[in-house]
Write a structure and sequence with these properties.
Length: 347
């Protein structure tokens, strides 16, 4: 079960892609939905519109949702293959925001005309890029009134990732120092605001001059913005200097280099820190939250982490959909903005 800070999406958000979906309130029996089809002989993906029946809700705990906006998130074909979820046509668009049209007989959290936002499960038969979808109520939460449709759909996944990383995987608390790599990215932007909200000291990296200027406009300000675009700034030295040689308490990376420059693919050489740099700048008892699913640690790396009493956690944003324990459930949490206004945002 996940609760995520709401204030983050009322502030800056950088890099989301979402669009609004038209809806016709007539009794049409079919509607168009977007799917992708992967070639059996190559990795080429083809997108197609297919007719879908506009069926009523028949399952007890399901909700029929009029889609107002849908985020265009990346399709992880590798994960689908690993989970044995491959099929000829796979639905496109999983982060949706919209209005409840109808509910099943055992739905307890929602009623018609409620404004909601959620993430469709991996095995959903309905694409988010459709006029209406049917989804289990546990995959939805109420949308805050002051958040637009596109903001809700465009931020829910990265909001969930940021909160999982900083709350569940690294136990963020006031006074801790946090290094957020690529802070101008979608995940980084929300993570910075969440860390500030919790009273942490934030250090971040910028991958371009534009990103650096964007990060320097944050209020409250980021303690240090490290511009890695020119290859001159050393992340490890900057973090140790900023923390008085103690190292940072939490690192949220955006990928790392695993090998030497001679053995690393060309696309990974630019801007990403080496895993040894992350281990070096991590403080005693620190937490390294990584998005690198193929992370490999050699015995000396593990020994260094052992001496520091540090931990490594993997950020898998699909774990809430894949876990039989969590079942994709979300809970509401109330937060107060700096002006004292209560905000209800739920993940």
């Amino acid at each position: 079960m996940v609760d995520v800070i709401s204030a983050c999406i009322f502030l800056h958000f950088h890099g989301s892609k979402s669009l609004e979906v038209p809806f016709h309130r007539d009794s049409q029996m079919t509607m168009k939905g977007l799917y992708f089809q992967q070639s059996s002989t190559s990795e080429e993906v083809t997108f197609v519109f297919r007719d879908r029946e506009n069926l009523p809700v028949t399952e007890d705990n399901y909700v029929k949702l009029q889609v107002k906006a849908c985020a265009l998130s990346q399709i992880n074909t590798k994960l689908l293959a690993e989970m044995k979820m491959e099929k000829e046509f796979f639905p496109v668009g999983r982060e949706v925001a919209g209005i409840v049209l109808d509910v099943g007989s055992k739905v307890s959290f929602f009623q018609p005309d409620d404004e909601v936002v959620g993430i469709l499960p991996l095995d959903s038969e309905d694409p988010g890029l459709c006029e209406a979808v049917r989804v289990h109520e546990h995959y939805l939460v109420h949308k805050p009134e002051k958040v637009t449709w596109t903001e809700a759909a465009g931020t829910i996944r990265d909001g969930l990732r940021a909160y999982t990383a900083l709350h569940y995987l690294s136990h963020l608390s006031p006074g801790k120092s946090v290094l957020i790599m690529d802070g101008a990215g979608a995940l980084g932007t929300i993570a910075i605001q969440l860390a500030h909200h919790r009273g942490a000291k934030v250090i971040s990296t910028a991958c371009s001059l534009e990103d650096k200027q964007f990060l320097e406009r944050f209020r409250p300000p980021i303690a240090r913005v490290i511009d890695v675009s020119n290859g001159k700034a050393h992340v490890t030295d900057s973090c140790l200097e900023e923390t008085g040689g103690l190292g940072v308490d939490i690192v949220l990376d955006a990928g790392v280099r695993l090998y030497s420059k001679d053995d690393e693919p060309a696309e990974k050489l630019q801007l990403l820190p080496h895993k040894h740099d992350i281990i070096t700048l991590l403080g005693v008892g620190g937490h390294w939250v990584t998005t690198e699913e193929n992370l490999q640690l050699d015995p000396p790396d593990s020994h260094c982490l052992f001496l520091k009493g540090a931990a490594v956690a993997f950020l898998n944003d699909e774990v809430w959909n894949l876990s039989n324990v969590q079942q994709g459930k979300y809970l509401s949490t109330y937060f107060k903005r700096r002006d004292g206004e209560v905000i209800n945002w739920c993940f």
